[in-house]
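Handout for the seminar on molecular recognition.
Each group receives one record of this type.
Step one: identify the two inputs.
Step two: read the structure output and locate the region that could contact adenosine-5'-triphosphate.
Step three: write two sentences on what you found, then compare them with the reference statements printed after the record.
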Amino acid sequence: MSRRFKPGQEPESRFRNMDHPVWNRVERFVDPFHDTGRELLPQTAWGFILYFANQARWPFIVLLVVGGLVGGVDAALYWSVGWLIDILDNSSPETLWRDHWHQLVGLAFLLLVVRAVVMIGAAIIEQQVIVPRFYTMIRWQAFRRVIQQPYAFYQNDFAGRIATKIMQAGESTGDFIVTSLQALWSFLTFVILAGTILTTLDWRMGVVVATWGCGYVAIIRFLLPRLRRAGRENANERAVLNGRMVDIFTNILSVKLFDSGQREHGGIRQALTNYLSAVTHLTRMITTVRASVALLNGILMTAVGTLAVLSWMDGAISTGSIAATMGLIFRLNQMSGWMMFNINGLIRAYSTVQDATETISVVPAIRDKPGAIEMPRSSGHIRFDKVVFHYGKEHGGLFDGLDVEIRPGEKVGLVGPSGAGKSTFVNLLLRLFDVEGGRILLDGHDIRDVTQASLRDQFGVVSQEPSLMHRSLRDNIAYGRPGATEEQVIEAARQAHAHDFIVGVEDQKRRRGYDAHVGERGIKLSGGQRQRVAIARVMLKDAPILILDEATSALDSDIEAAIQENLQTLMAGKTVVAIAHRLSTIAAMDRLIVMENGRIVETGTHAELIKKQDGLYARLWARQSGGFIALGEAAE
Ligand SMILES: Nc1ncnc2c1ncn2[C@@H]1O[C@H](COP(=O)(O)OP(=O)(O)OP(=O)(O)O)[C@@H](O)[C@H]1O
């Protein structure tokens, strides 16, 4: 797991001080930020549920005991109604208290104390321990696994969908365990006790209850797999619908510019229709189950009622026993209906956990090797050794045995038409994807032999469209160096020519300057401002290798010229890989590598390449400089 997190450090709540001597005592049983450190979470729903239940063993054992007691107390209360009727029948007001005071006190104790303790115990475990802390523990552990997934994982899924899965995993795992231990278990205890009481009154009633039990189990066993499938379909369609909406709202500008409003309606309508079918399928199954239980319970109540009256007519049972029998049976009827609701909830929770594990418990395609070393600060010596990479495709390869060497401190420009493989080159170097053949060496280390975190510590990257986080400008810049001082942040912003505009920024909540928040992905800043903040962040990081992917493309010429000066300072002594379509920005590099369709077609300095009149670079240069820079002037 991440080397920077120290387990057991519970951050302070921003919400309010939650310290309270009594609540704290019961709530401390589960540490919400506990983590086992296991690399991969279980991939089946059962495995996942048991894995987490085991981490909060004690509260669940208490809940198991409490759940059993709830069923026991319930059965005892209904049984005591019959008992009370019988002793009232056989006593006079004068002798009642004298002969039965201890039993009456016992009944009052059951009602007043035992029942209350059991109910309060169940509420505390569920509401104080499971809901807040157990849910949080699962979400925390799930988040830590998901964030380790490589870049490609996020390219293949919706961000909103991934976040939803993490939230649901906590809630559904907790709900599944609580419902099993509380509702299902207390129901089973009640059924067993009620069956035993009725059997002792008349064995035939025991047979009826046992037959009813078989019918109930058969309904569940027959319909359970179907309900489970329907529940899963439902969760999937719901996630797709949610993901589609998040995708639309995330790309709202494209939607506004390209769609008059109707096209997205079509997609959402389709997703809603699919979701509706899934919900309808599920609700039909639920209605079938409820109808079956209603019929079965009708038979149970009629049969047991008839047997009880017949036994009474034979003088085998008392009036009180009839009252207890009917009470228990009516309660059983009521509970079994309520149980269907809970079983439905259990199935839904199970399906949701299963669905969530398919996102959360995926084996990361890129992992640190066991024993991967921490890369020390690099000298910046990069080597691509016969690198093969096709984005997993069998045909239409990109790199097929690419050999490149970049010496420490060398400043290299990557040039080539769109789709040549420049960004892919950089992505492989950063190990956002793993090579499919050959190897990439950094200071002689295969980059797969060092930890990903220590590898990426070596790079400062400014990309074409830097995305900022919806945090303060200070936090965004300091992201380059955790723990940076205010002075260091401001100095970096000055060097990136960002300070002057930052002091004038104010957000909707009236936070100003470095405290102002920048909106999701930095949307409230202009492209050039965003790029300057990203450059400040990299200046602060001060990594030994710089990757500049169209780093100054969004800047106007004045700002660009000013920043170029500071970039020179930043680049001093560092290895630099710069990608630019505007060739003028990289013409001064030590060496240019010209790529086309994943192959290196030319390499040399600007002056050398420009001389090859029929070369790709010379042609690209001529085309660009034709517009605004005279060929001769630039070639100097
Ligand atoms: N995630 C991906 N999955 C599959 N193919 C990809 C992926 N990213 C890029 N490609 C393909 O790889 C090839 C090289 O793309 P790359 O982005 O490296 O080119 P580039 O030279 O950086 O282009 P540009 O100058 O337009 O940014 C292209 O054909 C592209 O379609």
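Reference statements: The radius of gyration is 35 Å. The first strand starts at residue 382 and ends at 389.
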